[in-house]
Amino acid sequence: MLKSTPPRTTFHQDMTVEERNIMLEHIAYWTDKQNQGIALVFGPVLNPSAPHGLAVIEVEYEAQVPKLIAEDPAVIAGIMTTEFFPMIATLPK
């Protein structure tokens, strides 16, 4: 599970044009990962006191995760910080 934290709690309401363009790249990046079967689900969590992004991903090796995070356009731009938390789950396919 990935948790991405924006630079401020009002980010989803007051992004600059540059931030919005980077976030569109961020969405395209994770949509591509979803099309590849890596991102199972992703999107914003609009918790008023602590908004963040959430992604549930599936990779063969945990060592793949840092590269996925590092290549996220929002992380590259310094707009989001992303934490990784392993999940142990059995999901029907």
From TrEMBL:
Lineage of origin: Bacteria, Bacillati, Bacillota, Bacilli, Bacillales
Family as reported in the entry's similarity comment: Belongs to the YciI family.
Domain of life the protein comes from: Bacteria
Protein name (database record): YCII-related domain-containing protein
Transmembrane segments: none
Domain YCII-related, chain residue ranges per copy: 17-80
UniProt cross-references to Gene3D superfamilies, sorted A to Z: Dimeric alpha+beta barrel
InterPro entries: Dimeric_a/b-barrel (IPR011008), YCII (IPR005545)
Pfam families for the chain: YCII
